[in-house]
Specification:
The protein is of the alpha+beta class. The chain has helices at about 20-25, 50-55, 65-70, 80-95, 120-140, 150-160, 175-180, 190-200, 205-210, 215-220, 220-230, 260-285, 315-330, 360-380, 385-390; strands spanning about 10-15, 35-40, 45-50, 75, 100-105, 110-115, 145-150, 165-170, 250-260, 285-295, 300-310, 335-350, 415. Strand 10 (about 285-295) and strand 11 (about 300-310) form a beta hairpin. The longest helix is centred in the middle third of the chain and has 22 residues, at about 260-285. The structure holds thymidine-5'-triphosphate and magnesium ion (MG). Thymidine-5'-triphosphate binds near residues 14, 60 and 411.
Length: about 425
């Protein structure tokens, strides 16, 4: 008799207070104290904070001034992206030891498909506990795991008992575990949709489940209604996609004083382009599209994008595109630059696309140079290399390039999926 196929078992893992926990690990005197990662002051935002700081109401993405008011005694650290990226890679290696199907979602979370490896959800729970233990032993960090028959429920589960949580949601427990949660927990319900639903008295997931048929479709349209109702029933058949890495990488920074001098703006473009290109090389990816984000002193935010003739992982190419976007498609009209961001999307493995028409010797040379620079930085720290010399341009002098800027780039300098 053919055996029944093994049930689907998906794990979602999300590290606890990730940047803050890494900093506590590096400096144990911080343990137990409210710790905030971010830049203090009028224009800063909170990247994340320790659970001790969360007790005071501090949260990710909160303006720093609010956080300072809520928790005046907190310790503040600016954050060290390259360290977090390294830790993230090592955690990824642990996950790769448990399943060939690992889908990273951001710097500190990933899905694992354990179908065929775990016999059932209980076995999935055992394996998830082992994963957590191995990360704790190797990295001295905790994460929270969710185990479920699909991605959506696994992700909901991992969040239920943070920090250091481990929650299984079998389909039978959807009514008790999922239905009491607010509608925002459903994928696809952003603040706007949530507001529309709330106006109709639909606040919790259970309200959607109990709504008379047709009512949701009238509010949201038939497609969305169907999609949300499936999730609300705990149904989701999306596959864990191992090939899928971050869809975009970006870095942005808000400046204490608006940038007005062209040389300063160019220096900022250079720093962001370099950071993004470095992260691309770190991830072993090339990008097709370059994005520029500018917020002016009077709070107008514009984003512009440009597709490259061929994908790249070189700072020079990203910088050139960002400069062109800035020059040709941003009208400052006398205003200063308050925030500046450079990003890339259309990420792929090198050589995945069309064979290059443009690959010339210069590109190869630049790439070899960049690789050497990455290695030197990795070995000796970033101070060993003046970035400006690597990226010398008419607008940028070698002497004042600020090699320390990249590690203080802000919250959104994450490999992110959108
Ligand atoms: P999260 O997993 O959202 O947050 P967290 O790991 O700090 O805390 P939790 O225990 O609730 O999971 O994000 C992972 C990291 O990404 C976080 O440590 C810092 C960074 N991040 C930002 O820089 N800005 C943000 O707005 C968010 C949400 C995260
Ligand atoms: Mg996390």
């Amino acid at each position: 008799m053919p055996r029944a196929p093994l049930p689907r078992v998906v794990v979602h893992l999300d590290m606890d207070a990730f940047y803050a926990s890494v900093e506590v690990r590096e400096d144990p005197s911080l343990r137990g104290r409210p710790l905030i990662i971010g830049h203090r002051g009028r224009r800063g935002v909170v990247s994340t904070c320790s659970y001790e700081a969360r007790r005071f109401g501090v949260r990710s993405a909160m303006p720093s001034v609010t956080a300072e008011r809520l928790c005046p005694d907190a310790v503040w650290l600016p954050g060290r992206m390259s360290l977090y990226v390294d830790v993230s890679r090592r955690i990824r290696e642990v996950l790769d030891g448990f399943s060939p199907l690992v889908e990273p979602l951001s710097i500190d979370e990933a899905f694992l498909d354990l179908t065929g490896i775990a016999h059932d959800l209980a076995d999935g729970r055992r394996i998830a506990a082992e994963i957590k233990r191995e990360i704790r032993d190797r990295e001295r960090l905790t994460g929270s795991a969710g185990v479920a028959p699909n991605k959506f429920l696994a992700k909901v589960a991992s969040d239920l008992e943070k920090p250091d949580g481990l929650v299984v949601i079998p389909l039978e427990e959807v009514p008790t575990r999922l239905w009491p949660l607010p509608v925002e927990r459903l994928w696809g319900v952003g603040p706007k949709t949530a507001e529309r639903l709330r106006e109709q008295g639909l606040v919790r997931i259970v309200d959607l489940v109990n709504a008379p048929s047709g009512r949701l479709a009238r509010i949201l349209g038939e497609g969305s209604a169907e999609h949300l109702l499936a999730l609300a029933q705990g149904r989701d058949d999306r596959a864990v996609q191992p090939g899928r890495e971050a869809k975009s990488i970006s870095e942005e920074r808000t400046y204490g004083e608006d940038l007005t001098r062209p040389a300063d703006i160019d220096k900022a473009l250079l720093a962001r382009a370099d950071g993004v290109a470095r992260e691309l090389r770190h991830a072993g990816l090339v990008a097709r599209t370059v994005h520029l984000k500018v917020r002016t002193g009077d709070f107008e935010t514009v984003t512009r994008a440009k597709t490259l003739p061929e994908p790249t992982d070189l700072a020079e190419v990203v910088l050139e595109a960002a400069r062109a976007l800035f020059r040709e498609r941003i009208a400052l009209e006398g205003r200063g630059v308050r925030l500046l961001g450079v990003g890339v999307s259309g990420l792929e493995a090198p050589g995945a696309g069309q064979p290059s028409l443009f690959s010339d010797e210069r590109q190869e040379k630049l790439r070899a140079l960049a690789r050497t620079a990455d290695e030197i930085r990795e070995k000796f720290g970033k101070a060993a290399l003046a970035r400006a010399r690597l990226l010398a341009t008419p607008n940028t002098t070698g002497t004042d390039a600020d090699g320390s800027e990249d590690d203080t780039a802000e919250a959104s300098s994450l490999p992110s999926v959108d």
